[in-house]
Each structure stands twice: as structure tokens, then as C-alpha cells.
């Protein structure tokens, strides 16, 4: 009896110890998705559109003014009506190659089949019409079967890809010719989209959720995953070039500077920044005692990034050695900006800090009254800051004094995404709700509902 009681006590103590350990581990884990920011708005001048994300959709808004943007949506991805959405360019090209190999079909017959192929949609009768035409053609039974199976497989795969989105976090990538948009979904689907139509050029499954965005460098795109990988992928084809394994989850868009790629990672009690060359070889690694989810910024041979140990770091870009750190009262999660020898960094303690880029010495701090998750924006010689509670400020970058604002974006508005602009005088703020806010440089507010 006594032995039984002792065994029960021992078991209870063991369970208590395990439970305490799990609780402690949970407390040390990185934060939940509540802090992940949607993609910032991007103006694509070559297409005359503004790209805006809201949860699992991308909206391409046509025009410049708030009135234009409100009434003109060029495309939406995924589309509302799947019966209007064609097969990807990659799938069409692959199947067209099968048609070209039909030895017993003349050129006119092949051209007719390719025309029907271009009309195939992910839903609706067009796929059946194409397959019937293939089945009735003079192609061999094996060629007919292979072609129709390829159509079925492509439709299934691309329907599944559209169903595996959930949300778009991080930055959208834009090709240098502004004809292609690259978007990574939380569930790991990476899409290359025609910027003029929203149609899919190609799609790939990264195999793990993607929180950060996509960095574009000529013919290569780079992105990281929660599966602790950084991928380099051919921009034209979606085919992988190489992968680099990190020690933590990648939550930020990589930064490319010259021949170096910088990427940060998040782990329970560790955060790291890696510098890689463009073959995926590690140049150096910098480690902190907490996660790093801030996108690195490079200026004057120094890399700046914040961490979950409440510190903003300045790191020597050549060897990864720390030059200085500056402390806040909460995490530095937002991407810092560097302008005129000053680093401007926002913290979840509700303050924006201006520090000397060379020494880290404090210049000033501004209290926004609410955590600041989104990166500030320098526009027309002013610093634009959007706090999480939906209040937007215009600051004098020399003194940190507010020269306009706060502009209130709406009751209950939450802002996590980076502030953006059209490059002139219009400010774009993307909240967590289905709306795009447009502000003038004097912080006069307009809104564009996202349908």
C-alpha cells in the first residue's frame, strides 16, 4: 500500500515536472501568427496598378486616385469565378508540346487543338471539349491518353494549389520588367502571376508554410520557410536552384545586396542572421539569444536588423561582427530604415527610435501610444509611422516631432503591414481588414474597399 502511494506520488511529481517543462517551453516559443504582417501595397508603374493583399486574396487595382482605385479592379487572385481561370502557362506549354509530337496530325489539326487548349479552364466544360477533340484526332491512342491525362492532372494540381493559400504574408515580388508578380502563400504555395491578368505562369509547393515574402534578383527569386529553409528558385520556370538550411524558422523576406543574401531566422531561444553568396554558400552567421524576424537592411557596409531580445543590431556586412546594439522595452520586429546617417526603427513598445547609424547613439524617440509592427516610410522628407491601433503620424526626421496627425483609420483598425507609397505623394496603409487606406502627404484619409 505504502509502495503504491509512493509510486503515485512519484508519477504525480513526474507529470508535474513534465507539465512545467512544457509550459516553460511554450512561454519561450516564438509568438503566434497574430503578429505576422500581410504584404504591403505595391504600385506597379509598368502595369498602372496597385497590388494589395487581404488574407488569402490579391487585388490588382487600376488607377491612381482613391476614386479610381475604388471602382477599378483589373483582377483578383484567386479569381472569384474559377470557370474563367485558365491553366497555367507552364501547363499549357507542356501539353502543347505533346500536341506538337502528334505524328499523324497535320499542322492545321494541331493548331485547332492548341486553340482549344488555350480555352481550358479549371472549371466548366472547356476541358471536356478539348479532351473530346484530342480523343477524336488522328493521334495514336497512347498520345491521346497521355495528353488527356496531363490535362486532368494539371487541373487537379492547380485547383489544389488555389485551395492551399490561407493568407499572403510578407512582401510580394515584382520582376524587373514588371510583368510578373511572385506571391508565396502561408500554406507553402509559390505562384508566379501575369501582372496584367493575374493568370498563373507557374506554381510550386515549397513543402512548408511561408511567412516571409519573396526577394527578386534578376532571374532568381529567394524565399524562406517555417521549415527552416531558404530557397533560390528560377524566376522564369519555378525550378529550384539550391536550398540552404537554417537553424530556425524564416519569417522575414531575404535581403539582397550586391552578391550577398541576408536572411534572419526565429527559434525558441535563438535568432540568427546568415550572409550567403549566390550559390548558397554561407559567408558568416550572427547569433542572438532570441529570434530575429526583422528583414535586414544594408547601408554603408552595415546590416541593421531587430530581434526579440528588444535590441536593434548593427552588424559588419563583411564579417558578421557586431558593431553596436540599441535597446528598447519590447521587440524590434518591423524592418528598420536608414536615411542620412540615421536608423529609424519601430518597436512593439510603441516607440519609434532614431539612432546614429555609426554608433547607435540615441537621437530621439517618439511615442506612438500603441505597438508599431509596420515599417515606417520616408516620403517627401518626412517619416510616416503607422501604429497598430490604426493611427498614422507624420514626423520630422530631425527632431521626432509630429508635424501632422494622428490620422485615425477607423474604429477597431489594426495595422501590421509595412507602410508604402506610390513614390510621389500618396501613402498606402493595409490593415488586417478588407480595405486599402490611401493618405495624402498631409494625412488626409481615403479608403478603398476590397471586394
Description:
The strands form 8 sheets. Strands 1-2-3-4 form a 4-stranded antiparallel sheet. It has a 4-stranded antiparallel sheet with strand order 5-6-7-8. A 4-stranded antiparallel sheet has the order 9-10-11-12, with no helix packed on it. The radius of gyration is 25 Å and the shape is globular. α3 runs antiparallel to α6. Helix content is 20%, strand content 35%. It is an alpha+beta fold. The relative contact order is 0.09. The protein has a domain of 80 residues. The protein is built from 6 helices and 32 strands.
List the helices and strands and how they pair.
Blueprint: H1 2-28, E1 42-44, E2 49-54, E3 57-62, H2 66-71, E4 73-77, H3 89-100, H4 107-118, H5 126-135, H6 141-163, E5 173-174, E6 180-184, E7 189-194, E8 200-205, E9 215-217, E10 220-224, E11 229-234, E12 240-245, E13 255-257, E14 260-266, E15 271-277, E16 282-288, E17 297-299, E18 302-306, E19 311-316, E20 322-327, E21 337-339, E22 342-346, E23 351-356, E24 362-367, E25 377-379, E26 382-386, E27 391-395, E28 402-408, E29 420-421, E30 427-429, E31 435-439, E32 445-449
Antiparallel strand pairs: 1-2, 2-3, 3-4, 5-6, 6-7, 7-8, 9-10, 10-11, 11-12, 13-14, 14-15, 15-16, 17-18, 18-19, 19-20, 21-22, 22-23, 23-24, 25-26, 26-27, 27-28, 29-30, 30-31, 31-32
Amino acid at each position: 500500500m505504502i509502495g503504491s502511494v509512493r509510486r503515485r506520488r512519484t508519477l504525480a511529481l513526474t507529470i508535474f515536472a513534465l507539465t512545467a517543462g512544457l509550459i516553460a517551453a511554450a512561454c519561450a516559443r516564438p509568438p503566434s501568427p497574430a503578429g505576422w504582417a500581410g504584404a504591403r501595397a505595391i504600385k506597379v508603374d509598368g502595369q498602372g496598378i496597385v497590388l494589395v493583399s487581404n488574407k488569402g486574396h490579391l487585388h490588382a487595382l487600376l488607377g491612381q486616385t482613391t476614386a479610381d482605385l475604388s471602382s477599378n479592379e483589373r483582377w483578383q487572385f484567386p479569381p472569384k469565378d474559377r470557370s474563367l481561370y485558365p491553366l497555367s502557362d507552364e501547363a499549357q506549354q507542356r501539353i502543347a508540346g505533346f500536341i506538337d509530337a502528334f505524328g499523324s496530325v497535320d499542322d492545321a489539326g494541331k493548331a485547332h487543338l492548341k486553340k482549344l487548349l488555350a480555352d481550358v479552364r479549371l472549371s466548366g466544360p472547356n476541358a471536356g471539349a478539348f479532351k473530346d477533340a484530342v480523343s477524336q484526332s488522328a493521334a495514336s491512342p497512347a498520345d491521346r491518353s497521355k495528353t488527356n491525362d496531363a490535362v486532368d492532372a494539371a487541373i487537379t494540381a492547380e485547383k489544389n494549389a488555389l485551395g492551399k493559400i490561407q493568407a499572403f504574408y510578407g512582401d510580394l515580388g515584382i520582376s524587373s520588367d514588371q510583368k510578373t508578380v511572385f506571391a508565396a502563400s502561408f500554406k507553402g504555395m509559390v505562384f508566379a502571376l501575369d501582372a496584367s491578368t493575374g493568370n498563373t505562369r507557374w506554381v510550386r509547393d515549397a513543402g512548408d508554410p511561408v511567412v516571409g515574402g519573396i526577394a527578386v534578383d534578376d532571374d532568381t527569386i529567394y524565399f524562406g520557410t517555417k521549415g527552416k529553409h531558404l530557397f533560390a528558385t528560377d524566376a522564369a520556370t519555378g525550378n529550384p536552384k539550391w536550398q540552404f538550411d537554417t537553424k530556425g524558422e524564416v519569417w522575414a523576406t531575404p535581403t539582397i545586396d550586391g552578391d550577398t543574401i541576408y536572411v534572419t531566422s526565429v527559434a525558441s531561444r535563438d535568432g540568427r542572421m546568415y550572409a550567403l553568396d549566390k550559390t548558397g554558400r554561407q559567408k558568416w552567421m550572427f547569433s542572438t539569444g532570441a529570434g530575429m524576424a526583422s528583414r535586414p537592411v544594408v547601408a554603408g557596409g552595415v546590416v541593421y536588423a531587430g530581434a526579440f531580445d528588444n535590441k536593434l543590431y548593427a552588424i559588419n556586412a563583411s564579417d558578421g561582427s557586431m558593431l553596436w546594439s540599441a535597446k528598447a522595452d519590447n521587440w524590434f520586429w518591423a524592418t528598420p530604415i536608414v536615411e542620412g546617417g540615421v536608423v529609424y526603427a519601430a518597436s512593439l513598445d510603441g516607440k519609434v527610435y532614431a539612432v546614429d547609424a555609426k554608433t547607435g547613439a540615441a537621437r530621439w524617440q517618439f511615442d506612438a501610444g500603441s505597438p508599431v509592427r509596420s515599417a515606417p516610410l520616408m516620403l517627401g522628407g518626412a517619416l510616416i509611422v503607422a501604429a497598430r491601433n490604426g493611427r498614422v503620424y507624420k514626423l520630422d526626421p530631425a527632431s521626432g516631432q509630429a508635424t501632422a496627425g494622428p490620422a485615425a483609420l477607423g474604429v477597431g483598425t489594426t495595422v501590421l503591414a509595412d507602410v508604402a507609397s506610390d513614390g510621389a505623394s500618396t501613402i498606402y496603409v493595409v490593415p488586417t481588414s478588407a480595405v486599402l487606406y490611401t493618405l495624402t502627404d498631409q494625412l488626409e484619409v481615403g479608403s478603398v474597399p476590397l471586394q
